Amino acid sequence: MTNIAVFASGTGSNAVNLVKAFNSGNRIHVALCLTDKENAPVIEKMKDLGVETIFFPRSVWKEEPQVILDILRSHDISVIALAGFLCFLSDEIVNAYEGKILNIHPSLLPAYGGKGMHGANVHKAVIEAGDLKSGATVHIVTSEIDAGPIVVQKEVAVLPDDTPESLEAKVHEVEYQAFPEAIMKIVASLTPPAIPKSVDDAWAEALGVPNNVPPIPKNDNINQTGPTSPTSLTGQTAPTGPTASISPTAPTSTTSMALTKEGMPPTYLVWSVIMTILCCTIPGIVAIINSAQVSSKFYQGDIEGASRASRNAEIWIIVSFVLGVISNTLYIPLALAGLF
Ligand code: GAR
């Protein structure tokens, strides 16, 4: 299990989305929320979701970063997600978690980044400039604001009748996909795959579904280049995990870094195939289709869709089994009686 902390200053819809995406699985867990705003709406929301949430005034963030680091260490935090966090992060924190702090920004960075560019300010600037597209970027935090290597970027179209509010709503929708996807990539780069190649993988290969993700060794360099890719970023050791080492990607495309199975619901692929062969064919095939969708949806960042497909596969396996038992139970006496 990899523990992550969310830092947030405002509404907290991204923070809530991360908890919903991860905390029902057993690979990534939002274990802590820290805020710099005493009355931020995110506080109640996170408490309702059972996530420990602590307020520290800005003076602590600025002058006593050790206090923050102690809390992070005591919760075994490996990765930090800045979800609308508007407080300056001191160098001590950035250095201690180098390569392991992700920030979500509501524009296609490097456009509309830097000081003063956050939330509604960004959307107003995009509309005023008459841009035809905007989007969301998740990047690794460095000491320069909004300038670290890009991990995931997703676009939205800006239509003539869009307002800053309507654009914000559209950007939020892609943020809810981009942020979990980026966190899974960082966690995957930190953690060796827990599951060795299995029968499940063999079937996935045979059926041509993306279940055969290559293992990522510790300190693996995953190189991707793009117009703005400067240097490969090599992280230092954070308090609780091995080193992250990821190169940035082209600014206008979603990355395609390899993932491990971190957090993926069970595919039940082997059982689906067995039920198709031994029990009832049609529900078995439906189960196989759902099994195949688990990994494809998961690797597209659609975690809810993957969980749904996993549940559906399970249900259709049971249906196939029950129908198989019933039909065999009826068939055998009728066959013995000579009716078949
Ligand atoms: C998000 O749109 C995020 O991209 C932005 O703040 C919003 C927080 O919304 N972050 C920044 O502007 C950072 N520069 P939320 O509180 O509903 O998650």
Question: Which descriptors apply to this entry?
Answer:
340 residues, alpha/beta, Rossmann fold, 2 domains, 7-stranded mixed beta sheet, two-stranded antiparallel sheet, 44% helix, 14% strand, binds glycinamide ribonucleotide
Give a verbal description of the structure.
The protein has 340 residues and is of the alpha/beta class. The protein folds into 2 domains: 2-190, Rossmann fold; 199-225 and 244-336, no CATH class. Helix content is 44%, strand content 14%. The protein contains 11 helices and 9 strands. It has a 7-stranded mixed β-sheet with strand order 3-2-1-4-5-6-7, sandwiched between helices. α1 (13-22) links the parallel β1 and β2 (28-35). Mean pLDDT is 83; it is low at 212-260. The structure holds glycinamide ribonucleotide (GAR). Glycinamide ribonucleotide (GAR) binds at residues 8, 10-14, 83-84, 104-106, 118-119, 172, 175.
